[in-house]
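This week, think about what follows.
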Amino acid sequence: PTAAARGRRPLILGAVAALAVAAAAGGGYLYTQRDTSAASTAPPAAPGGSQVPAGPVTTVPAEPTTSDTPAPPPPPPPAPVLTADALPGLLLPADQISTLLGTPGMTATRIESQPLDAQIAPAQCDGPWGPAYATTYTGSGFTGLAVQVVTNKPVQAAQAVAAFPDAAAAKVFFDRQAGMWNACKNTRITQTVDGDSSTVESGVPAMVGEVMTLALTALSASTPGQHCERDMTYRGNVVIDVRACSPTLTDTGRTIATTIADKVR
């Protein structure tokens, strides 16, 4: 080589050496960066070199679907609709009424299928006085009636059941009677039959469960302390109409009415 070329060789060698040093430095920088990044994403090590266990996993229960909801209960069966020929079988036998009233030997009259005639004053208080009177039931729309008296004087009970076209019609009759009984509260009511009269003082009607009840205090009874109780309820299309009288009467009339109502099926 010429003298000029020999003069340039040290310069070239120096440049190459400088480039090698720079490359080595840059590669170390890049390696350091990659190593640091990898270390930042790794999970921390537990003391002693063991791995830190993963945290608990919480599972959220799914919302219940429509199929998980219980079905609503079925609707109640429709109220029974009894005809006139089923009514006599609802009345209680004489021995059962004897037991309820605590009076042995009570006997029953024949069962009537027509409303009873009587003269009541005030006339609008015929319903509170007793069951199954013609002035009470005429024009009411009833389709059948059975009425009977069970007696061993001075204890007696009159029981009646009346059928209506449906339960709604029976309720209309019952509600109308509730208004009449309330209008006759605290009133003296007199019945006249074949020239003989008897008078009672009516109390205040009240609902006890499903039974409308009214106390009647006898003012002209031959037996001192005689008391009567009027009771009325309805079940299905049947109205139950009861009057019980006894010197030791408690709530037996209501018991008779409820027992009859329970036979309506």
Observations:
- The CA atoms of residues 90 and 260 lie 6 Å apart.
